[in-house]
Amino acid sequence: LDHDAQPAVERPSLAVLAPVGRCLRNFVTFSDDATFERAFPRTRQPRTPARELCPVTHKLALYRDPITDIPYANIRAFRIIREAYKKYITAHGLPNAGTGTAQAEHSSRTRQKIIIKQAVPPT
């Protein structure tokens, strides 16, 4: 056991460790509420996006079919939508098939929406 006094290790103060620089803070004080409102007008709250319903199940649609752009709620509804789309394609052909190149370029840039109405089978 060593009872001799240990020399104290000096630690540098925080002021020495802090980077050398300046910190500026600006305070703007308004005399009344009208002046504050003119400087910082209130913006409208952003509108929440419209909630879409699944046309098959009539439930809240959580997903969207990338080909038909139809909202759907579950995998069963997705399969019904795709089956109806396949029947539509076999009966009518692909939309915009056989058109000019200018229209083909335009259709590739814009998303085509195909509306398919189908009765919901009773469950």
UniProtKB/TrEMBL annotation:
Recorded GO CC terms: nucleus
Species per Swiss-Prot/TrEMBL record: Scyliorhinus torazame (Cloudy catshark)
Record's protein name: Vps72/YL1 C-terminal domain-containing protein
Pfam families on file: YL1_C (PF08265)
Stored SMART domains: YL1_C
Superkingdom of source: Eukaryota
Domain Vps72/YL1 C-terminal: 52-81
